[in-house]
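User: For a reading group we're discussing how well predicted structures match intuition. Take Acireductone dioxygenase. Before you show the prediction, I'll give you the sequence so everyone sees exactly what went in.
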Amino acid sequence: MAIEAWFMDDSNEDPRLPHYSNPNEFVSMDLLAELGVLYWKLNPNDYENDEELKKIRETRGYNYMDLLDLCPEKVQNYEQKLKNFYTEHIHQDEEIRYCLEGSGYFDVRDKDDRWIRIWIKAGDLIILPAGIYHRFTLDTSNYVKLMRLFMGEPVWTPYNRPQEEHPARKEYIKSLTAKTAMPLAAH
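Assistant: Thanks. Here is the predicted 3D structure of Acireductone dioxygenase, as structure tokens, for the group to look at:
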């Protein structure tokens, strides 16, 4: 099954709620691909031996990996960290997350600056392009175990919005306007 994504409502209620628009307006994998968001469905129960994951890591140059258990019991300053993750930002590099257990939401901005909510669950590997405005929060399960992948040494520096002059943001906008269609699809 492909990942679920939809346009969000404008409510300020608990960010861990789904925030479906009314009426619901689901987002296709093609639209996510146009925004540069990549997706794979993998087997989270055997990630140490997953040949497809090894191939992705080799092809894309992800030579660093760590695991993050995000829940109130395992993270110091949990509420503050979750608040920081939910602050709209960009990174100068891709953000690669592989959900091994639990679930959560990545929100990304579309070309018209509307929020798209992407619900990741166990087995979902998602790549957000450098320069895309995004944020993350848990859903009401309050738990996710993520594999974080990087090229080289990990850099977790968020650049909070506005960042229109940041080189990664400029390059991202250029990539959106330079192509009429992106021939990438879900894997």
